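WARN  no MSA supplied for this record, continuing single-sequence
INFO  ligand: NAP
INFO  echoing inputs
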Amino acid sequence: MRAVIQERYGSAADLRIGELPDPVPADGEVLVRVKAVSLNGSDRENLAGSPAYSRIGGLRRPRHPVPGSDIAGVVAAVGAGVSEFRPGDEVFGELAGYRGGLAEYVATPPKLLSRKPSGLSFAEAAAIPQAGCIAYRATRGVRPGDKVLVNGAGGAGGAFVVALAKHCGAEVTAVDAAAKGSYLLSIGADAVIGYESEDWADRRDAYDLVIDLVAQRPPHRVHRALRPHGSYLMVGGHARILLATLVAGAPIGWAVRKRVRVLAVPQSREDLEAVTALVVEGSAAPVIDRVFPLEEAPAAFAKLAAGDHRGKFVVEVA
Ligand SMILES: NC(=O)c1ccc[n+]([C@@H]2O[C@H](COP(=O)([O-])OP(=O)(O)OC[C@H]3O[C@@H](n4cnc5c(N)ncnc54)[C@H](OP(=O)(O)O)[C@@H]3O)[C@@H](O)[C@H]2O)c1
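INFO  complex generated
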């Protein structure tokens, strides 16, 4: 089968399109003929091997040579013991371990896969899983009138976070490069901050919830922007900030009567189906910036690393 192959950590120049043996589904697995894969910030991190958490399970080189985690496709075969899917079923979801998607076929346990709604294209379905599930968890508990700030809103995951916060009735401030300002307003943000000219953390008592997709500030720097009883959620960012927030976030938050913590987002079929129901009813929509053919996947990764995307890049495999 044709696949994107990554043998070492590095840059898009370390990716090539090549041939790999077709996978065979083991007992309890399904074989999916992949149609579309969407790229996330985590795919950029898994290519670079940075932050450190992206090397879990593959310290020196990627444990799986094929990148790509959010897939949509058609079940081609099922292993022994699989009863919930049959060949021909259209499915989408995340791959365990965040790798293996950018290939004509992938074998995976079916527990993270869902049936693709007929009204969504394969590209649209592939654009939902990771971004949608982050947004679903991060915005749980948002109430009408809450002031929510989304840091790093212009990338792969931000559009879903902005959309679900708006769906909950929040007033949303989106932070990203100033050049993405008009895009952020177009996806529903009420206000934008260009990170080059203003540090949102210098604001005082401004937000009920800060959702940080690109955390760079230690926990003692983020709580002052929160209103009384507000929450700061670190979703992604530097490994040292992750560690500092895990260790010091709770005591700092407790001292100031706010919450400062890391949001762990499990790979979950239930969350995927809940957020997809919101997409189907029209409360949120995947934002696809551009669709690339498989041969141009390395170029898509190069543009992802450069921050050239507004929403999702999708790679069409077949
Ligand atoms: N917590 C969990 O359980 C969990 C689960 C899955 C994924 N994740 C993480 O969640 C994150 C998701 O990010 P994503 O997919 O949306 O990433 P992304 O596509 O890379 O988007 C990040 C956005 O942030 C912008 N940005 C860069 N520097 C910034 C700064 N200093 N201030 C504000 N914005 C800045 C980027 O724009 P420019 O590059 O143009 O500046 C880009 O638009 C990843 O780190 C991933 O590992 C966490």
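The chain is about 25% helix and 25% strand.
INFO  checksum written, moving to next record
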